[in-house]
């Protein structure tokens, strides 16, 4: 099997693995592990994402060194990871020991994480910038053009997979919220009919039962839907 065919099959397997990741966190972890296994010269890999407030946070890494690299950049407020998020798509650093672009970051990354070479990619889908994928090496000049090409493809797969996983989670959460609201509404209707109370009073009965029993509101509502009455431990609330 030629190297090109083998590589294509590896990325096909990656695409399937990422597509079946149950959560965004699983997808992120799989990307970091795959980066180390696939990109020549990569000893460590980490992912940082932009949160809803615009802050950059580390969310996944293949090990301690990768976590340190991201952590140092966030602490000093400079580094190639932040650069690809805000200014460029790809940033390669041959040797942090001699690179003068981010002195505060480079000095600490070499001393604390034992990292010399870095390769960073922006994670994005269309105009949505998710964050950055950072690959690092313990030796200088570890990443050649082939590594850059592989990393670029990997970053594209990662961004699509993470977006897909995030959207699936949002859909699941929305579906759960809708089911919960339906169950609570049904339970309130049952309590209104059983106790001849208003909708607001029915909700108060449900909420009081939830608080007294230290159970989630939806769980108490499901009991009401199943039995037609409040759980035994909370029925006193309906009689007050």
From TrEMBL:
Keywords: Kinase, Transcription, Transcription regulation, Transferase. Pfam families: ANTAR, GAF_2. It comes from the Bacteria. Residues 164-225 form the ANTAR domain. InterPro entries: ANTAR, CheY-like_superfamily, GAF, GAF-like_dom_sf, GAF_ANTAR, WH-like_DNA-bd_sf. Gene3D superfamilies: 3.30.450.40, Winged helix-like DNA-binding domain superfamily/Winged helix DNA-binding domain. This is GAF and ANTAR domain-containing protein. It comes from Pseudonocardia yuanmonensis. The lineage of its organism: Bacteria, Bacillati, Actinomycetota, Actinomycetes, Pseudonocardiales.
